[in-house]
Amino acid sequence: MSRIGKKPIEIPERVKVSLQNGEILVEGPKGKLSMKLHPDIKVYMENNTIRVERPSDDPFHRAMHGTTAALIRNMIKGVAEGFTQVLEVVGLGYRAAVKGNNLELSLGYSHPVIYPIPPEVKIEVKENKIYVSGIDKHRVGQVCAQIRAFKKPDAYKGKGIRYEGEVLKLKAGKAAGKGKGKGGKK
């Protein structure tokens, strides 16, 4: 069995979970999330725990077993605590600011890049760090990926938008001539 799918999922006190018509609805202090369940995967509620079971050891069923359990865990954590990811804007003159319902980025282009903020996600900017938060882990990650795609960190100086704590392997650049080649003494 899947190690992730096999573990029972604990439901915190302030979170309500309901199963109906092949759909799971999770409601908590931060909001509501729902997900349609695959018809082959069975989800059971007992007391304050959720169990996920699969019909066979078929590779597809094994994959759906762990995935379904992980998605339910993320939904419960999202409505209880929420998710936050941090992006860093690195580079001389590179700036980010929230103006109304838009994120405005100055990234060295001839024009500012304007990203409309989706309604289910909250974006804050503090000291050239962009804080993206929301209850849906997938949506928060997707918004971060879209913002990062405007100016990925370059391979030589590391300028651009990167995830907080992201380790970049910078290239050395052009090596200084050592007298070899055209015009140099040997």
Major sheet size, sense and barrel closure: 4 strands, antiparallel
Mean pLDDT: 91
Spell out the helices and strands N to C. Answer: HEEEEEEHEEEEEEHE
Shape: elongated
Strand content: 35-45%
Q: What class do helices, strands and sheet pairing give?
A: alpha+beta
Radius of gyration: 23 Å
What is the tally of helical segments? 3
Low-confidence stretches: none
For the termini, the CA-CA separation is: 67 Å
Query: How many β strands by DSSP?
Result: 13
Lateral strand order in the biggest sheet: 11-12-7-13
In which range does the helix fraction lie? 10-25%
Description:
The chain has 186 residues and is of the alpha+beta class. Helices cover 20% and strands 36% of the residues. The strands form 4 sheets. The protein has a 4-stranded antiparallel β-sheet with strand order 11-12-7-13, covered by helices on one side. A 3-stranded antiparallel β-sheet has the order 1-6-5, covered by helices on one side. It has a 3-stranded antiparallel β-sheet with strand order 2-3-4. The mean pLDDT is 91.
Concise structural overview:
This protein is of the alpha+beta class.
What attributes characterize this protein structure?
186 residues, alpha+beta, three-stranded antiparallel sheet
Spell out the blueprint of helices and strands:
Elements: H1 3-6, E1 9-10, E2 16-20, E3 23-28, E4 31-36, E5 42-46, E6 49-53, H2 59-80, E7 83-90, E8 95-99, E9 102-106, E10 113-116, E11 121-126, E12 129-134, H3 137-148, E13 160-163
Antiparallel strand pairs: 1-6, 2-3, 3-4, 5-6, 7-12, 7-13, 8-9, 9-10, 11-12
